[in-house]
Amino acid sequence: MNPKVPKLFGAALAVAAAVALPASPARAAADPSPEAYDAYLTELVDASGVPGLSAVVTHGGETVFAAGYGTDSHGDPVTEHTPMRVASVSKSFTAMAVMILVEEGAIALDGTVAEQLPEFAMADPRAEDVTVRQLLDQTSGFADTTVDAIELEEATSLEDYVSRLGDDSLAADPGTDWAYCNANLNVAARLVEVASGQSFADFMRDRVFTPLGMGDSATRDEDVEPGLGYNSLFGVWIPREEAAGFLDDSGSGGIITSAADMGRWLVTQNGEGTQLVGAESLAAMHEPSAVQDYGMGWSVESDGTLAHSGNLMTYNAVQWIDPETGSGVAVLTTGAGLTDVTWAAMEGLTAIAAGEEPAAPGHDRQVIELVLGAVSLAALALGVLGVARSRRWAERRAGRRAWRIALRMVPVLLPSVALAAYPAGVSFISGGRTIPWHQMFYFALPLTVTLMVAAAAGLAVAVARLVRLRSAMRSVGSAA
């Protein structure tokens, strides 16, 4: 997911996903000393409090800096070889797998998916016209608004995933609109399996990871153990199992890798070092579609740089390359909170690489969570006070018209209304991505808890007032 959302909600209101990247960082042009990168990241990790972070900077065919900070869930120091989940950064890897097979003639890039993957079918005749290229640049017509994203998360394999699309439809004619939807890259990953005769895990290992020397990488945690990620609740980082969902072998977000391996990936993406495809195919992956500044797993910025972020419930990651200067940056973190530390870190590293002064690391997460914590305490206190004063409130309003009483109840019920609309509101802000309730208890946790406390306090006051009002009205009736 690669969202652009207001700072107040941060990454929590974007979840995955994920329709526009922030403005491009400065173009990199030089290679400062490793100490400059290290000093910046040390300050950033200290300021953000993120439990574990790793980063890599490349230039030309070389890795000029790679390091890790903090500790993992096992208590071991994070290094450049610590495996982490990179979520939607995986999309560019899946695109590469497809392009390898395109060059070998096993997949036709502009041929339809239905012709090359006979098991692919949807309850929409337009699906027969979806091409492989449209899967990769996300112009197929797939959208979370017309596919059952929650059901798809229950898939047990890529084959099962594709079969679950049978009763879904498209949101637009293929090639006419862009929508960020994980189904695109998961169908593409299944096509890789069928076209190659290998599992997606084996293909990625044999044809991508091994040739590039990416020994820390895999598509499933049974092959590379990433450990637990973290969520922050009012400033305290809590180790969590990643949210249940389709991750193993997922073409949209299943890659597990390290900063060191990401360095090799950035180098090849910049056309240096070991090449998996020819220059023409590499360029095609970096070209935007006709309807959106998005290539094949890369957001294409106006200055020619490319980037893509990845957000899971407990991990964040980002990658960035500048094909003109041959520079690249990737940042991975084991902590997912209300702000995305990886994007800020990437911007700082690219500024240093360009010989510029990076912005001072901020304390956005701590400030936001401090405010939310204060709001939670205030809501709790007001709830207790409201219940305590409910008898006096009721006595003063006994005998008044019902509509006037109802109006006075509206303020205390507003938090409950906001809580009920919470997932739908987040989905709307996230550009139509489907955000189920259970995901609200991960990196959106502080906001979710605050809304729940406010709603519970309001409901308690409302119930207390109604009970007291009923009693007061009986008393008035008896006196009459």
Automatic annotation (TrEMBL):
<keyword id="KW-0378">Hydrolase</keyword>
<protein>
    <submittedName>
        <fullName>Serine hydrolase domain-containing protein</fullName>
    </submittedName>
</protein>
<feature type="domain" description="Beta-lactamase-related">
    <location>
        <begin position="38"/>
        <end position="338"/>
    </location>
</feature>
<feature type="transmembrane region" description="Helical">
    <location>
        <begin position="441"/>
        <end position="464"/>
    </location>
</feature>
<dbReference type="InterPro" id="IPR001466">
    <property type="entry name" value="Beta-lactam-related"/>
</dbReference>
<feature type="signal peptide">
    <location>
        <begin position="1"/>
        <end position="28"/>
    </location>
</feature>
<keyword id="KW-0812">Transmembrane</keyword>
<dbReference type="Pfam" id="PF00144">
    <property type="entry name" value="Beta-lactamase"/>
</dbReference>
<dbReference type="InterPro" id="IPR012338">
    <property type="entry name" value="Beta-lactam/transpept-like"/>
</dbReference>
<keyword id="KW-1133">Transmembrane helix</keyword>
<keyword id="KW-0472">Membrane</keyword>
<keyword id="KW-0732">Signal</keyword>
<dbReference type="GO" id="GO:0016787">
    <property type="term" value="F:hydrolase activity"/>
</dbReference>
<feature type="transmembrane region" description="Helical">
    <location>
        <begin position="409"/>
        <end position="429"/>
    </location>
</feature>
<dbReference type="InterPro" id="IPR050491">
    <property type="entry name" value="AmpC-like"/>
</dbReference>
<feature type="transmembrane region" description="Helical">
    <location>
        <begin position="370"/>
        <end position="388"/>
    </location>
</feature>
